[in-house]
Amino acid sequence: MTASRIVFPPLSYVGWGALEHLVLEVKRFGAKHILVITDPVLEKIGLVDQVTSPLRQEGYSVHVYTDVVPEPPLEAGEKAVAFVRDGEFDLVIGVGGGSAMDLAKLAAVLAVHEGSVADYLNLTGTRTLEKRGLPKILIPTTSGTGSEVTNISVLSLETTKDVVTHDYLLADVAIVDPQLTVSVPPRVTAATGIDALTHAVEAYVSVNASPTSDGLALQAMRLISRSLRKAVENGTDKQARTDMANGSYLAGLAFFNAGVAGVHALAYPLGGQFHIAHGESNAVLLPYVMGYIRQSCTKRMADILNALGGNSTFLSEEEASHRCVEELERIVADVGIPKTLGGFGIPESALESLTKDATQQKRLLARSPMPLLEADIRAIYQAAFAGTIVEPNKG
Predict the structure, then answer these.
(1) Which residues of the chain fall short of a pLDDT of 50?
(2) Residue 394: its pLDDT value, please?
(3) What is the greatest pairwise CA distance in the chain?
(4) What pLDDT, on a 0 to 100 scale, did the predictor assign at position 79?
(5) pTM summary value
């Protein structure tokens, strides 16, 4: 048995009121000129003020950069990097969902490198990151992406997505304060919550899973499954928001170390071609991918069922794995996310181009417990369009 490589960010503060530690951490870095990268909506509603006001009161120079869009394209990454290169910042703070935090990580590291962002992309890039870059603090305002604890920055290309990935992209400090998520609307709460659940599920069945990632993933599933519906129904539910923040954080650590696989590989083209939010792309595909690969991981699917609040005690592994897929379908439906690709306006004619793009996500597909070839990927997309769970040689 080979040893597992386990990596955690250097420092995290997790829990209600965690933002109170921000000023202390900024002082520790000796920073003077701070760049905050955030979503323009968060600035408009005043949430970013909770980050910038304490810093300005301490005399720090703070500039807020809001040229952030959901599912940021490569051009947004290039623009953010150029902005940091042209400035005289000595600390970058990412505030928001995955898009803002991914751009913050990318800009902080590539600011001290030559070349374009495209040069460092996983699928097509030819350069390697060689310097740690500027210090970075990441503060999520949603419970879902896990970006605050991963070494990946995701960018949308013309029809799919690619990543820049290196341990230099890890946050120096992650501050996970569920109080910042209270104002997140129900649809975003649902999408990001299923995103976090997908991270945990895929990490648990990954070929790279370890006892460490297993523990993180299972606890993440327990927390998310008991709190997601409540958080969607009542955003001010303190316990539900706290559970979701903790669950998302643990799921992020789990998938950072074990990896995600088929769901994400097939979700990337949905975002690239149809600009569907990443969490919703994962959500609509989750039951279909897990149903398709079910036979390759029935024991683990039984474990997932138990973590989701089910009971496999009197079921065979085969029965429990079927029940697990049904529970995943139920959770997605309960939080109001469409159950088919057609529900997002995706025509059947697009399935072939989606299939072609998904087959290129070899980094992700390699972690699937069942090898997913082009025919398998096509079958899963067709199942997601029809709204029917299928399995190999059965669909």
Answers:
(1) 395
(2) 54
(3) 65
(4) 97
(5) 0.95
- β-pairing, 61-65 vs 136-140, is unpaired
HEC readout, the chain: CCCCCCCCCCCEEECCCHHHHHHHHHHHHCCCEEEEEECHHHHHCCCCHHHHHHHHHCCCEEEEECCCCCCCEHHHHHHHHHHHHHCCCCEEEEEECHHHHHHHHHHHHHCCCCCCHHHHCCCCCCCCCCCCCCCEEEEECCCCCCHHHCCEEEEECCCCEEEEECHHHCCCEEEECHHHHCCCCHHHHHHHHHHHHHHHHHHHHCCCCCHHHHHHHHHHHHHHHHHHHHHHHCCCCHHHHHHHHHHHHHHHHHHHHHCCCHHHHHHHHHHHHHCCCHHHHHHHHHHHHHHHHHHHCHHHHHHHHHHCCCCCCCCCHHHHHHHHHHHHHHHHHHCCCCCCHHHHCCCHHHHHHHHHHHCCCHHHHCCCCCCCCHHHHHHHHHHHHHCCCCCCCCC
**How far is 175 from 54, CA to CA, in rounded Å?**
15
Q: Are 219 and 213 in contact (CB under 8 A)?
A: no
The residues pairing with 101 across neighbouring beta strands, listed in sequence order, are none
State the number of CA atoms in the 13 A half-sphere of 122 facing the CB. Answer: 19
Give the per-residue pLDDT at 1.
Answer: 56
The reported pLDDT for the residue numbered 395 is 45
- Bridge partners of 161, per DSSP, are 156
CA-nearest of 359, 200, 345 to 269 is: 359
Residue 204, both tokens: 């648990």
Strand partners, 351: none
